[in-house]
User: Fold Non-structural maintenance of chromosomes element 1 homolog from Rhodnius neglectus.
Amino acid sequence: YKPEYKTVIQFLMIHRMTPYSTLKAVLEKASDGNDTDIDKAIQVLNETIQCLLQKIVTLPCEITGERMCVLITTADREDLRNYLTPIQTEYLHRVVNAILTSEDGFVGAIDAINLHTQLKKGRINCVDAENYLDVFVQKKLLMKDQGFYCLTALSIAELGPYISEHYEVENCLLCKTIVIVGVKCPKCEVGLHKHCFDNFKQGFKKQVKCPKCKNAWIEHIPEPVMSIDHHSTDSDD
Assistant:
């Protein structure tokens, strides 16, 4: 493939998750402005790296709506031992479970730390748990703000099959990707990402109607808990 594609995959191997616009800028810079077709680059790279059980996936950040590019493994999507220890992996699964079984897709920091008492593969204390949570944030598996944790685009893409198999989650009716943090129609309870709903309702001059049941969508839509930029492209420590 083109030499500039090598720069793109190297960038993703370092950062694992980056905004789509950033990856496009990387390609443009590497090609001296001659190539801006990042979608084609992703297609070619995926054909090349599939034998390595890797794949580049694009999906929206549930919090900001920004389109993200992530590099995932297509082997055992539940197995995170390539970059986490066994006890870290078990603890992360406990946190993920707490997030996915919550009402809003978030878990508070104190509740997350207290999950260390449920581990079976070893013992850790509160300080260890807090340090592990920092590791998960640094590795872009979790986002944290205002004392709450939620999943990132990377963790949703990486654990997608596992999440779909073990939890009652649905795909957003509009973007067709898993929705964990979102809004529900007050009538039929179909789930949508808030940013998808915000874009959808721009097409209505008066009363917004549910894209599924067509009933009026009159429920107040609260702002998401998290609103800051969590997608720094700094490399993992």
